[in-house]
Amino acid sequence: MTLSTSLAARGPMIGIALAVAAVFMFSISDVVGKVLFEDNPVSVIVALRYAISLAMIFAISFPTVGARLWQTKRTGLVLARGMSLAVCSIAMGYAFRFMPVGETVAIVHIAPFVVVLLAGPLLGENVRPIHWIGASLGFAGVLLIVRPGVGLAPIGVMFAMITAGFSVFFHLFSRVLARTENAIAMLFFTNVVGAVVFILPALFEWQAFAPTTQTVMFIVLLGMSATSGHYFFTLAYRFAPASLLAPMQYVHLVFATIMGWGVFGHLPDVISMLGMMLIICGGVAVALHTQFKRNSPAE
């Protein structure tokens, strides 16, 4: 068996492993981000996170891809995609300031369901009954998490919902651009947009920023973990189809909840945990159905 044949045979498992590593890094960035956002200006932290990510992407990718790092065919849409993620970043920062990690991540994970439903009328994709069932489970899960009396700060819930809303735009742009654009170039421009957008707000809040050595270390860790997560996912798509990797995104919710409990001592109550399970079950069911249909012989 040649090396290329061996890699092809093990490709899906390599892709899944990379996707799990990606969501693990995202969970680290969630927890570290909450630590930073609670005591520091959000715009400053987000600006520094994007600056670190941009430097990492350039250092890792430029030696191998050269000018292709910034070559795009639909630059306007690529920039719009980056802007949608920039809004997600600032909204997520404020959500973490007021909300526990697990509940925040769970609310944001409603976005993939909305993307699936909108992909029909907007992108011409086939939306099946299983997609509506999955979306219903996801929405029901979010309602259980944000139910009255649970004690979540309304402003935090609002920012989490804003994050979920702009995540929908981000994912829709990603689906459209995946047909023509290089994944590394999209990742590069995502960080360029974020770094540029938050320079001015960060300058206005810079005087309120008094970092300690620990804060600086956490900011570096935030940038490195977020960038590593995106990079691992980019690599994962080289080995496995998106439909196979989609369920791995919901492992993010598990990791984030466990890490949030370990660092902040917050564990969601039983009903909120049930809501999270509904979100996970709905997402995994849709993803597995998509993978099954992809692998089924044509009728």
Structure, described:
This protein is mainly α. The chain is built from 13 helices and no strands. The protein has helices at residues 3-39, 42-65, 75-98, 101-108, 111-123, 129-145, 154-177, 183-197, 199-205, 213-239, 242-245, 251-264, 270-295.
Record keyword descriptors for this entry:
globular; mainly alpha
- Proportion of beta-strand residues: under 5%
The percent range for helix content is over 70%
Number of DSSP E strands:
0
**Backbone shape:** globular
Q: What is the compact description of this entry?
A:
The chain is mainly alpha-helical. It contains 13 helices and no strands. 80% of the residues lie in helices and 0% in strands.
Walk me through the topology:
Layout: H1 3-39, H2 42-65, H3 75-98, H4 101-108, H5 111-123, H6 129-145, H7 154-177, H8 183-197, H9 199-205, H10 213-239, H11 242-245, H12 251-264, H13 270-295
